[in-house]
Amino acid sequence: MARAPCCRGLRLARLRSAAPLCGADATMPPSCLAREFAMSVQSLATRSAGRRRWLLPPGGPRGGRTRGLAAALVGIALAGSASQTTFLERLDELSFDAQVGIVRAMRDPAAGGASAQEVVVVGVDEASLAAFGVPLAMLHAPLGQALEAIAAARPMAIGLDMALPEQSFDHLRPGLERDLMGGLLAARHAADLVLALDVDAAGRLRIPSPALLAAAGGTQAFGLPLFPVDCDGVVRRFDPDPVGMPARDRRSCVAGEDPDAAPSAPATVRARQLPQGLAEHAPSALPTFAARLARRFGREPELSRPGWIDFTRGSAFSYVPLLDVVGWYEGGDSTRLREHFGGRVVLLGSVLPFLDRLRLPVSLVGWEYPATPPPGVILNAQVLRNALGVGLLRPVGLPTRIALLAAMASIGLVAGPWARWWAWSGAASGAFAASTALHAAGWFVAPGGAIVAASSAVVVRTALDLARARRERERLTRTFGGYLSPQLLRAVLEDRVDGTSTRRAIALLFADLRGFTTWSETADPEVVRDALNRYYAAITPLLHAHGGTIDNFRGDGIMVMFGAPEPHVQPCDSAFAAARQIIAAIDRLNQLDFAPRGIAAIEAAIGLAFGEVVLGDLGSAERKDYTALGDAVNVAARLQELAKLLGFPVVMTQAFALRLSTAAPGWCELGTHALKGHTPVAICGWKGAASAELPGAVS
Q1: Are residues 88 and 24 in the same domain?
Q2: Domain range holding 615?
Q3: Which residues touch 319 (CB under 8 Å, ≥6 apart)?
């Protein structure tokens, strides 16, 4: 049967290079539409070195750079707005802790800082309290003896990191306060003496009794042992202005709080609450305990600005029990006293298990398990070690932080999504390695903002690309969806159709209209085209609903594949169901559309076959079709012609019929028939069914 070339339909065209321009006719030829579609699809899906790429939206490099710049700006803005959030603080804190562990593992702890022997800790432990037989609040006599013993050894400075009693206990034990006053006077005359000024649970200063205050040397001998506490309850930073510190960030080293208590437990210390003699000098007269000691050595500038405490320098501390110091003093062992305390900074404080414990990134306690929160006196000792050594860690300046944010956010300019995430991973790893190196050199770079900026930029750029790609896919689907079956269109948009061939057993359906050529010879061409369009409009949704892929339209003929390009579980069942619905659709079309319009009724002849075919591209580099080749294709086409001769609407191979899950009414075997240009084939026929039996038929 002759076919009009103008009626030949589209197959899939996938171009590897630009096609020549089509003619500027009023009606675009199918070949031009195919090339236009292929060129549009190529901008969405490409394949390189056998590996799938992201579906890139069109628009050229300029559109991608615009989206990347927008994503980078959003990332910087989000990082700036999140600078005071708990999430960002936690990122910085976790990074700090990890860097401390890495640097301490890689360097000699004593390198570059004050030796552990320069700061000596004298600890009030459980054994000392048991030996003296008095509670901590009444430890006046042993403390006085210990201070006299340490003073006799001529240390560089003495720091008493314990709260002096607010009231006298002489009414309980006469002379008790005098014993402590003697030790304070001896220590004050022998070396520089600094005492911790504690706060109570209500935030009020615990001012010692007037006699002890005078013996210590007045208000100039006191310092506040307060430190900023991070949101996870860990002390990592030092602030030289404890009074100006936010209340939620303060923690006393001598208040004796539970280490697991909320960071806001210590109350506020404000100038208006200070007693006479201190309030008039606040806050300048109330430096921290460690800063007051550092001033004695001219190292106050090292603690003059807020900074991160350097926990990477110095080995773990040990302590000398208070009981041993008193014993050496009472035994006149001046040699041992000079050996331990001579020319050193001595800090005296509590090392009791449940008193004055603070959580630190690293324990720095040599006599307990590493995970045990160390005493507050150890934190003061480490800060003093920083002051006597290379100083605290300093935060980098604002220009450096902004430059880091911009550099990390520029990852949003990377084109491919996977490349962006790899770039993010590499940049984050590189930034952490660089910040660790800076940590070892005495600087701390808070990486949380940079990580948020980079992550936000990558997410925003990916979201923008996805939205652009989705819009482009929808546009292509609207524009070219009518030229391809849904299965093939999905395969093209998802880049699952390539130039390689695939062997697969599929079902094939060929359909043709009986007597259509004879009728079209006398009918008006516009009427012929209209009739064909109505016919195809009626059967195409049915074919797609059963998973059929329309290979091509050939005038009044059609070729349909079931199982390509997407595999089908029951291709024969779907193909036969589609054939039956085609017959029913033609009946409805004749009754409801053609008859009222005076168009002759049409009848279909359908051939069905099942077999292994080769699926893939067919054509040249400039023009390709995705189609099936194989014996089953030829057999299905011949059966369609045979159906006209035998008078059956549907004829199928016996191999096809045997794969049907259920037999339909009107099905029968037709024996072996010779096909044109082919060996004889065993076939079966379907006579059709009553109108009510056909799926979707009208009554």
Answers
A1: no
A2: 5-52+495-693
A3: 121, 122, 123, 125, 351, 367
